[in-house]
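Listing S7. Sequence submitted for prediction.
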Amino acid sequence: MARRALICNSSPSEALPQTTKAVLLDPELFETLTLIQTGKVRPVPVVLFGRAYWERVIDLDALVDEGTIDPKDRDLIRFAERAEDAWALIREFYAEADQVDAIATDA
């Protein structure tokens, strides 16, 4: 079964096609995460399909333990099993972002 990562900027785009025969960690995925971590870009939803697969490929807890990433950086990645789940996560992300923007402009 193919695994895919989806990086959604203004419109969803496929960032990382995966097959079970080869593991190719796309620099675009990590570049996007780094830009979000460092505040160089506004956060965008990062959705990886197949939680069990990705948790084996990228051990976020180990990266936290080694001090490579901050514990809150784990929250930059969301997991989905189905397209409908990914769409719900993307919609939720932007609904929360709109609320934050509304609060910021009211202050």
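Caption to Listing S7: primary sequence and predicted structure tokens for the chain studied. DSSP finds four helices and four strands in the chain. The two ends are 49 Å apart (CA to CA).
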